[in-house]
Amino acid sequence: MNAVAKIDENATKLEMEAPGQPAAAPMAVAPPVQPVPSPVKKKRRLGRSLLMVALPAALVVGGGYVWITGGRYQETENANLQQAKVSIASDTAGRIVQVDIADNQLVKQGDVLFAIDPEPYRIALAQADAAVAVARVGIEQLRAAYSQATAQEKSATSEVDYAQSQYDRAADLAQKGINTKSALDQARNDLDKAKQQLAVAQQGIISAKAALAGNPDIETDRHPTVMAALAARDKAAYDLAQTTVKAPADGVISQASSFKVGQYVGSGTPLFSLVETGDTWIEANFKETQLTHMKPGQKAEIVVDTYPGRTFEATVKAIGAGTGAEFSLLPAQNATGNWVKVTQRIPVRLELTDADARMALRTGMSTAVTVDTGVSRGFPAIFGHATAGEVK
Question: What residues form the membrane-spanning segments (predicted)?
Answer without folding.
Answer: 50-68
